[in-house]
Design a protein that fits this description.
Length: 125
């Protein structure tokens, strides 16, 4: 099994469920506290490229930081670089957990999605 990097917030129940699920599958995890040590702009750029997702999927749109910064009304005017900088500067703005093995990326936690992405990853190597 490859080691997975998990950007997570320890108090977040979704993150705890994701970590528990991944550990139950036998994954070795490198946990990174997303509020204290958010991914850098470079890391986010790589995560975005590997995820195949739109950048907006990386935002925790139901979070307090998103609302406090009034991003709902500002997102359309922001450049990709500005959005990446916001995520890098405000860890709690990131939808979490973000899980990566360096090639594949998942954002958030849905068991079906994890089963597809993170089950038997060693057999694909």
């Amino acid at each position: 099994m490859s080691k997975l990097k998990v950007y997570q917030y320890p108090k977040c129940s979704t993150c705890r469920s994701a970590v528990k699920w991944l550990q139950a599958q036998g994954h070795e995890l490198e946990l990174q506290h997303i509020a204290e040590q958010p991914p850098t702009v470079e890391e986010l750029r790589e995560l975005l490229a590997n995820s195949g997702l739109e950048l907006k999927k990386f935002f925790n749109t139901s979070g307090e930081v998103y609302k406090a910064l009034g991003l709902k009304d500002k997102m359309a005017q922001l450049s990709e670089q500005e959005k990446l900088e916001l995520l890098a500067n405000h860890g709690m703005l990131n939808k979490r957990p973000i899980v990566t093995d360096g090639n594949k990326v998942t954002v958030g936690f849905k068991e079906e999605q994890y089963a597809e992405a993170w089950t038997n990853t060693s057999s694909k190597a």
